[in-house]
Amino acid sequence: SPVIRLRDYQPPAWRVESIELEVELDIDASEIVARLQLRRDPAQSLPLRLDGENLQLLSIALDGRALDAEAYRYDGCVLEIDGARDGSMLETRVRVRPAANTALEGLYLSGPRESGFLLTQCEAEGFRHITFFPDRPDVLSTYTVTLRADRARFPVLLAGGNPTGAGELEGGRHWARFVDPHPKPSYLFALVAGRLEHLARDYRTADGRAVQLKIWAEADAIGRCGYALDALERAMRWDEQRYGRNYDLDVFHVVATHDFNMGAMENKGLNIFNAKYLLADPDSTTDDEYRHVEAVVAHEYFHNWSGNRVTCRDWFQLSLKEGLTVFREQSFSADMNSAPLKRIEDVALLRRAQFPEDAGPLAHPVRPAQYSEINNFYTATVYEKGAELVRMLAGRLGADGFRRGMDLYFERNDGRAATLEDFLGALGEANGTDLLPYLAWYGQSGTPRLRAQGHHDAARREYTLKLGQHAPGNAGPSARTPLPIPVKLALFASDGRMLPLQLAGEATDAGSERVVVLEQAEQALVFTGVEAPPVPSLLRGFSAPVILECDYTPAELALLLAHDPDGFNRWEAGQLLAARAYENLRDGSTDTSLQAWCGALARLFADDGMDDALLADLLTPPGEIELAEREGAVDPGRIHQLRQALQRTLAERLGADALEQRYRTLAARRSIALDAASQASRRLSRRLLELLEACASERALPLAAAQYRDAPGMTDRLAALAVLARGQADEGERALADYRQRYAGNALALDKWFAVQAQLPGLAALPRVMRLEKDAAFTLHNPNRVQSLLGTFVRANPSGFHRADGAAYRFLTERLGELDALNPQVAARLATAFNGWQRLEPGRRALAQAAIAELAGRAGLSRNLGEIIGNVLN
Ligand code: DPP
Ligand code: ZN
Questions:
Q1: Does 288 map to a domain?
Q2: Does the chain have fewer CB atoms within 10 Å around its N or its C terminus?
């Protein structure tokens, strides 16, 4: 399939100033009339070409005259029309088939045909499945949308923009009209029609606009929308206060669906959410999921400015809206919850999802240079690494400077389709500085490495810290070093105090923490007045998305783990030490990392002043995927066993009695309260139960059974279920059966039931997954269900998926074939599980390669799956 390249970008030859859409909605066949007011770029002479896929063309008229067949050509992808002029009005009438649309792109049906509702998903290129249009983000138009449908079957009719009228039609039909005065690209268009209920709240923006907030869901779910509505209000206030951004329409609708390819979608004035990120109640939602709901509600709302008012010139600039909006969302979540815990969660995600992506065959720059299917680029790199790049810039400018820069960016680009250069330009200009060197970060793939080496000169009372950087092997041809790398650092004395930082040649000391931007390949910092060898705490708060190489001794890491007041770096020291402890076990090496790690954690465990949630995170070693990143030839089965052994060693050091006692104290005050302390206590209680499971499962299992039975909410219930399921005794099967029945009608809770079992380690997983595929509730048609069972198995269960016999590889390729025929986006995402196969140990590598090559050789793969498989194989 054709490759699209950033360097080939051309402005549109034809624009659409305004569009009027009239939609006759019906489950099987909907008809769409579109009237486009065309503008022609006088500098270009290309004929009028419009995108359109799977459209049944009924009629076409230019400036009021019906066109006969010689005047246009439609090849199934592009409609080319003769005779259009600047100012022409084009009218097309097409038919589409919502109920037959299993790809969930364009107009489709959510739920059963008798009771489900119709909705649209247009990002990135879904609008061309609805009507003929220049379906690219730099064509901005005002939209007038009229919906018509049977009133009994579709009582609620919604589209983006302000409602301007509604009424009755003959034959039990009705209509509703919406006008969006803000020019927008087609990917932000949306409509919804069906039987939905709503929860409403009046909101007044800081600049005085009265807004009606409405959250829509099906009747059985409307009672679970209250938390999202509160979160939306918090997000709106926060964006007013932190960025001075106000909402700009009279209504803001949010709709929940169970059938959605993405997490959620920021359509102007009509956000559509995967129910997973909108519905919440204590009986079926975990603490982590509550935080995700809050974060995603905020994320989509924040897009109203970072994405909608200022959109992207082309899809290569996707991170301009996504990286920036993830950063804004992360800052909001940090403000609403605990900032250090949020940072730990985000960096852990980056390492689990983005670092492996960036190190393997699917690696791409935050601004890719080319793609054949844009839907394959909604990746951890574009989102999470993109957010890290914005965070670096924000840190570089400081809070006030960053706000100044953002104000200028929004003001200058409002109503425009912008580029990353526009973003860096505005941030820099507002602060009188040149940020363009940071563009290099956007143009190359791979995770850079930062080397740090310290030397203490006792006679001169000086400490020299040498910093150096090198690009990873896969940085690509356009890689530029050096990159600007902000390194936030501090120095610790051996008693755990932070030292004042006095750089040689500087008049005043700069406190005990500072940011040094490494702008060269190497740089030496000389600190004066340092009596004894200090311990450096580097990249504090993870100030740059790099891999740190520093020869810490176990004792130095233990010191930081014990004393660093930066919660993130304290955790980071523990992670480094745990990874080294893991190597002790793996290699039989004899340095003291394992004792140092266990000893430091034992002291923290005994310290009553520790925050429960931070302690839970400190007691968790890096995950199996992260540990695999440190191996030459990856054997996921062995990594699983070694990590288990590591946890057992820690648990034994803490002691089963102490673990159980602390667990019982926390269990005694179980509740469903959502305040930080209650959440922290649930988080620690779960971790303690897991550690007890590691060192004394015969004691953990009865506690888990009781916890499952008595749990007041989902967080405790699911934690217990996971322990019981791994225990594989009758008790586990009983709990699983109980849960299955209890939540038979609750799709989101059932997803967790599938996921827990898909995570069973080792050889037990594949037969379990295959058995679960036969469950009446399993279907390949629902993305959440596919993700919960198959996605969890292939992407979050390395020891289960990477069986030595290769059976799971062949299983996956079979399912990919079936899925690809239904929903190419979901198939392509699942296929990324093969990323990293080149680094497997030789036996698994050969089996994986054979399975992937067989799939790649099949005829008729979608562009989505074809691109992923092709790239993975290279
Ligand atoms: N809906 C997706 C998101 O918000 C893509 N825009 O990230
Ligand atoms: Zn987004």
A1: no
A2: C
Pocket of ligand 1 (CB under 6 A): 123, 262, 264-266, 299-300, 303, 322
Residue nearest to atom 6 of ligand 1 (CA): 265
- Asked whether residue 466 falls in the same domain as residue 529, the answer is yes
**pLDDT score recorded for residue 399:** 97
**64-85: average pLDDT:** 97
Residue 473 has pLDDT above 90, yes or no: no
Give the residue numbers annotated as catalytic, written as ranges. Answer: 300
Residues 796 and 872 in one domain: yes
- Does the pLDDT at position 476 exceed 90? no
Residues with Cβ within 8 Å of residue 803, at least 6 apart in sequence? 637, 763, 766
Contact in structure between 378 and 868 (CB atoms under 8 Å): no
**How is residue 8 annotated by DSSP?**
G
Q: What is the CATH number of the domain that holds 465?
A: 2.60.40.1840
Looking at the chain, the whole-number percentage of residues with pLDDT higher than 90 is 97
Same domain, 559 and 539: no
| Residue at a domain's end among 161, 195, 229 | 195
CATH of the domain at 63: 2.60.40.1730
Position in ligand 1 atom list of the atom nearest CA 383: 7
ipTM score of the complex?
0.98
**Average per-residue pLDDT for the chain:** 97
Identity of the residue numbered 362: L
**pLDDT (tens digit per residue) in 194-243:** 999 999 999 999 999 999 999 999 999 999 999 999 999 999 999 999 99
Atom 4 in ligand 1: residue holding the nearest Cα: 265
Contacts 24+ apart (CB under 8 A), 838-843: 838/360, 838/361, 839/360, 839/628, 839/631, 839/632, 839/633, 839/634, 840/633, 840/634, 840/635, 840/636, 840/802, 841/633, 841/634, 841/635, 842/633, 843/804
In a domain, residue 804? The reply is yes
Report how far ligand 2's centroid is from the alpha carbon of 318 (Å): 9
**From atom 7 of ligand 1, which residue's Cα is the shortest distance away?**
322
Answer yes or no: do 489 and 406 share one domain. no
Atom of ligand 1 nearest to the CA of 299: 4
In sequence order, which ranges of 430-516 are alpha helices (DSSP H)?
439-443
Last residue within a domain, chosen from 153, 172, 195? 195
Give the domain extent around 817: 749-874
Write the DSSP symbol of residue 160. S
Answer yes or no: do 527 and 585 share one domain.
no
Confidence (pLDDT) at 507? 81
pLDDT tens by residue, 334-392: 999 999 999 999 999 999 999 999 999 999 999 999 999 999 999 999 999 999 999 99
For residues 172 and 47, membership in a common domain is answered with: yes
Contacts with 489 (C-beta within 8 Å, 6 or more apart), sequence order: 465, 513, 514, 515, 516, 536, 537, 538, 539, 540
Residues 34 and 53 in one domain: yes
